Amino acid sequence: MPHKHDKTEFQKDTEGPDVTETQVREIAVRELLIEKGILTADQIRKQVEDWEQKTPALGSKIIARAWCDNDFKKLLLEDGTKAVAQYNVGMGDLELKVIENTPEVHNVVVCTLCSCYPRPVLGLPPAWYKSSNYRRRVIRESRAVLKEFGTDIPEEIELRVHDSTADLRYLVLPMRPDQSKNMTEKELSKIVTRDSMIGVTTVRVPS
Ligand code: FE
Questions:
Q1: Is 68 tagged catalytic?
Q2: Residue partners of 206: CB distance under 8 A and separation at least 6
Q3: What is the pLDDT of residues 140-149, one digit of tens each?
Q4: Ligand 1 mean position to 117 CA, how many Å?
Q5: pTM of the model
Q6: 12-55: per-residue pLDDT in tens?
Q7: Cα 173 to ligand 1 centre (Å)
């Protein structure tokens, strides 16, 4: 006698039935690492959990500190990796390069090849950062792309696009808004957004 639930249709996997070549490679490498005893499944799970819990709040705190503490700002621009170590951020083998926005130059970050991102300070990258659309267009038509984010960079301001790599990650030090003169470091950290540290927006004081 067939079980009465035999015809139940289960909800499809959100990733769809097709497994990409990259996913197959990831599964193969992961299974091999576990099989050879180099990593355990639990260690991998824990790392993913850690990544997913990181938020851009840490980056915001670092930027607000740089706005209030000149020595820290100097160190952050000279040696980003060393500066963020003060916040217990380990960059591993990665170099963190912090680039400062000025009245003359606006910086924006991309990874044209894949999705390299300053994860230790900002957490996981947003979906648009990984999209081929952003990666391709921000190089060729930077001003137009920024406009789509609501950011108007006047022609007289130079726009520099920085292409991240596997060993080098960029973080933008946005300009401190004029209207923020009386704000404390803690208050400032609340207005520094993720997107301003990628460079697709600027920091504004909410009215
Ligand atoms: Fe990448």
A1: no
A2: 191
A3: 999 999 999 9
A4: 7
A5: 0.85
A6: 566 566 788 888 999 999 999 999 999 999 999 999 898 889 99
A7: 20
> Buried b / exposed e across 159-191, counting CB within 10 Å, b at 16+?
bebbebeeeebbbbbbebeeebeebeeeebbeb
In the block, residue with structure tokens 């217990």: 88
- State the distance from the centre of ligand 1 to the C-alpha of 7, rounded, in angstroms: 44
For residue 184, the CA-to-ligand 1 centroid distance in Å is: 35
Would residue 111 show up in a list of annotated catalytic residues for this protein? yes
Measured in residues, the chain has a length of 207
Residue recorded with tokens 């197959």: 24
What's the pLDDT score for residue 2? 46
**Domains identified in the chain and CATH numbers:** 20-53 (no CATH), 55-198 (3.90.330.10)
Catalytic residue among 111, 164, 189, 196: 111
Instruction: State the DSSP code for 86.
Output: T
